[in-house]
């Protein structure tokens, strides 16, 4: 049975005072779902210190363990700071930093080598959605981004339609169901029993107001949440919806 996961991605938001939002989640971590927050790298160690039952993750890592890579952070550094997760392949990294599927694959392997679980993001553009290319795109991204050796323990897939991120637009429940079923089949075809153990999250404009209906969709094992994870008052509503699903 898969433990559901409510993961917050703070993106480039948050200062020391924001850690109070993580502390404020403590009343919502006793349920059956796992809760994680991925703050900016500057806050990872401080977040771990006050996180309690909330798992902490990084938002990106370099593919190498160390070296002359100014401004980058290795998976080992995140692990050393106490992180349990790292996000790879977020569409904002793919777009802003020209990260390819091969880069995402290498970063994912780096995360595993450091002992982190990886939340690997895939998702289609609006153009791909409108041209009917969504499932082909998901197949291609998974084939190239997901390394051999993925297990239910070391990999979480986050399906994030790019056009739904931060826009307030959400695919229909049927569209979410279609993509999640396709992702699940692709994972089980390739990884067998382990593919059945991997969590598949939905991400893109998840709010307390729409979380319950999204979590009721088959093969949705939780959410990767951006804007609505910044405030405990919002994120706790999403956690409670997941606990109730
Ligand atoms: O990583 C999170 C996603 O990009 C979703 O962001 P959002 O909830 O602000 O749409």
From TrEMBL:
Pfam families: TIM. It catalyses: D-glyceraldehyde 3-phosphate = dihydroxyacetone phosphate; L-erythrulose 1-phosphate = D-erythrulose 4-phosphate. The keyword Cytoplasm applies. It is found in: Cytoplasm. GO terms for cellular component: cytosol. GO terms for biological process: gluconeogenesis; glyceraldehyde-3-phosphate biosynthetic process; glycerol catabolic process; glycolytic process. Pathway: Carbohydrate metabolism; erythritol degradation; Carbohydrate degradation; glycolysis; D-glyceraldehyde 3-phosphate from glycerone phosphate: step 1/1; Carbohydrate biosynthesis; gluconeogenesis. The active site is at residues 90, 160. It comes from the Bacteria. Substrate binds at residues 9-11, 166, 205, 226-227. Its EC number is 5.3.1.1. Keywords: Cytoplasm, Gluconeogenesis, Glycolysis, Isomerase. GO terms for molecular function: triose-phosphate isomerase activity. Involved in the gluconeogenesis. Catalyzes stereospecifically the conversion of dihydroxyacetone phosphate (DHAP) to D-glyceraldehyde-3-phosphate (G3P). Belongs to the triosephosphate isomerase family. Homodimer. NCBIfam families: tim (TIGR00419). This is Triosephosphate isomerase. It comes from Thalassococcus halodurans. The lineage of its organism: Bacteria, Pseudomonadati, Pseudomonadota, Alphaproteobacteria, Rhodobacterales.
